[in-house]
Amino acid sequence: MTALRQSFELGLVRCRTCGIAVSRASLRIDRRCPRCQSRVEHRTPFSTEMTLAWLIAGIVLYVPANLLPVMHTSGLMGEEDSTILGGILEFWRSGDWDIALLIFTASIAVPFTKFIAIGLLIFTVRKNSGWQQHQRTVLYRIVEFIGYWSMLDVIVVALTSALMQFQVLGAAEPRAGIAFFCAVVVVTMLSALSFDPRLIWDRQT
Amino acid sequence: MSAAPPPPSAEELPAPVIRNRRWIPRLVWLVPIVAAVIGISLLIKNWQNAGPQISISFLSGEGVQVGKTLIKYRDVTVGHVSAVGLSADHKTVVVSADLSKDAASLLQADTQFWIVRPRIGVGSVSGLDTLLSGVYIGMKTGTAARRERQFVGLENPPALSHGPRGRELELHAARAGSLGIGAPVYFRQFQVGRVIDENLLPDGSTRVTVFVEAPYDNFVKPVTRFWNASGIDVKLGADGLSVQTESLAAVIAGGLAFDDGPTEAVPAAAGAPAEFTLYKNETEAMAPPDGEPQYVRMRFAQSLRGLEVGAPVEFVGVNIGSVIAVDLGYQPQDRSFPVIVTAKVYPRRMGDAYEVLTAQGKTENDETMAAFVGTMVNRGLRAQPRSQSLLTGKLYIALDFLPASPHAAFDSSIRPLELPTVNGTFQELEANVGRLIKKVNDLPLEQIAADLHTDLTDLHETLSELHGRVLPSAVDTLSALHSTLDSAGRTLDVESPLQRGLTDTLSETRSTLQAVHELADYLDRHPDALLRGRRPQKMPHSPAALSSEARP
After folding, report:
1. Sequence-distant (≥ 6) Cβ neighbours of residue B247 within 8 angstroms
2. Residues of chain B with pLDDT under 70
3. Which residues does residue A126 pair with via DSSP β-bridges, in sequence order?
């Protein structure tokens, strides 16, 4: 791998949008991609910093997302505010362990994985590490991919609130927690988006 | 596109003007900061809203669920149960609850908590919403200034949870009857309040706490009498049958009623007392005050079947008290079993006699009472069981003056006072009937029957003899008599020779008598004719001529 020459050394910059390789010299005049007119950078500026900022925002938002109730159900059997963890526990206790596992994966495991994965990526990039560069790239792609799936909870709450409106018999309303959770998902997706995976391969020898 | 032009060397290009705008991307750091601010503000808000944590102990934690069971004040949620556990001695359930901050001021030392469960009574239905939603903990603030965090929960909800305006009154009664908490209180058939508490006092009497709502509490005056309105009052009076009840609910669930009592009974202490006596019924409530009862004891040497506890004691027909005990005694002297009746009498009900007694300056104590009763006994006062009704056989005790009764000793030192007794009239009657029946029983009925039987046999024999022998001869005699009478009839017939002869004879006799009459007449006028003989008569109508003309 070390034998390969990096695009920087070749004076080339790749457009992240359309994939064209542009000579750095031409970019000095116009920073836009000659083909798709999108902005071309050798490395996304402040990538790790922004990723880190989004990541921290995500972690901060994750706390109220889990502490605050996400949904308020009321009906003949009384009223109840449910948090994500509370809901999972309830499903688990009532024997629906599969649903509990699904919600746990989507709401707890995935965001956590993302925090850890992005954190790891930032950490290794900052450390200029050459460790497991391929695996880390794969990890980044996975994080990018599973980002949407964390919206499962939001969708569940949205659907339930929309469908369960039987006045006295039963009604569900979203609560603040789900907004925070939604924000967590969006912010972590932004965090993943801000990360420039090319940094993984940059090694200053 | 063609390949990029060869990179020009740095020297041949003008130095690029680099505008330093590196701070713009750093604005992204505002995101975590804003997130943190929101999070922290939420935390602070939560912390500020976090009210006090209290613990309430209940005997049973039935239906209480952590996180789900709410604490409600006036049906508004002010907190929720955060933990349920057992007390150290495992005797009570300790429910911990987080209250909202604004509920902190509700926590006085005498704030009450109770578990609201569905309750269905005859008088009311409450807590039905908890059937589906599960129980909640109700709360009622107190008035004490001291704050408290540890409470003992009530097992039954208080009758008044939201302190409406009105007055609480305490009623004292020997027994509460069929009252329950929540039982209605009526004023002239209007429900104006409820029973909110019932207590059994250490002395065994009951204390009923009632609440009379605000506009109506003015009706409660010092003269007000309370009575138990449970049940139906059926009266058969001279004007027909009257049924009176406060309401159907009161019939089933019990209830109280109050009204102004007799006005002469206004106590000296004005104002509105908070304690009243609860009477058994309206009649008793409206009766003039009885004062302190006196206890008297009576020994009856007869069966008192039909005399019940509570039977009236009447003094010359006026109810002055009631029987409170009927016991069997034993007298070793003559080994008899007298029935000992204890009764309470209210001297005040004796009216003027009592007035006189008190007017004499004598205080109402046992001594004066005993002396009073002593004089009455000397005048012939006796206790006598009498029958209230022949149908039921119920007895009452009548105190009456029976001067004819034998003298009875009265010991005024015995307490309770012992009244001499005489046997009841009905019992006397019964005894007389018994004696009569015994006499009838003692008659030698069998002997009489045997004698009678013998006599009847003799009679039968006599009759058969009569029939066989006497009757035929009697028939003969009768026929002979008949022929005799027949011949007699013939003899006496008008056409018979005897009759004719008799008629002739009688005619002759008459002629003769006429002649004698003429003679006597002639002699009367001519007495000398006796000597001279008869002279010729020239009178046209001589008695002889007349008598000859009358001759047929």
Report:
1. B184, B186, B189, B191, B255
2. 1-22, 121-125, 159-164, 176, 231, 233, 235-239, 246-247, 249-250, 253, 263-273, 288-290, 357-366, 426-427, 536-552
3. none
H-state helical runs in B263-394:
282-286, 352-359, 366-378
Domain segments of chain B: what residues? Answer: 33-158, 165-289, 294-438, 497-550
Residues with Cβ < 8 Å from B270, sequence gap 6 or more? B222
Mean pLDDT of chain A: 83
A53 and B32 within 8 Å at the Cβ level: the answer is yes
| Chain A CB contacts of B39 below 8 Å | 60-61, 63-64
B70 Ramachandran zone, left/alpha/beta (phi>0; psi -120 to 50)? beta
Coil/strand/helix, residue B269: coil
Separation of alpha carbons B207 and B85, rounded Å? 35
Determine contact: A89 vs chain B, CB below 8 A: no
- State how far the alpha carbon of A107 is from the alpha carbons of A103, A163, B29, in Å: 6, 21, 25
Residues of chain A with CATH 1.20.140: 46-201
Amino acid letter at B233? Answer: D
Tell me the CA distances in angstroms from B465 to B459, B468, B474, one per residue in order: 10, 5, 13
Instruction: Write the residue in B5, B68, B132 that is nearest to A23 by C-beta.
Output: B5
A175-187 pLDDT, tens digit each: 888 888 888 888 8
> Out of A25, A54, A79, whose CB is closest to B28?
A54
Architecture of domain A46-201: Up-down Bundle (1.20)
List the single residue in B with minimal CA-CA distance to A74: B133
pLDDT (0 to 100) of residue A1: 46
Nearest by CB: A78 against B28, B29, B134: B134
Q: Find where tokens 């009927």 sit.
A: B326
Locate B139 and state its tokens: 């709360």
3-class DSSP state of B210: strand
| A29 shares contact with chain B (CB less than 8 Å) | no
Q: What are the structure tokens assigned to A151, written together?
A: 């919206």
Which residue carries 């009311």 as its tokens?
A: B124
pTM for the full predicted model: 0.47
Amino acid identity, residue B219?
F
Which of B29, B31, B47, B81 is the best residue to mutate to test the A interface, defined by the most A CB atoms within 10 Å of its own CB?
B31
What ipTM was reported for this prediction?
A: 0.76
Partner-chain contact A46 B25, CB within 8 Å:
yes
Any idea what DSSP says for residue B289? P
Give the Cβ contact number of residue B374 at 10 Å.
Answer: 15
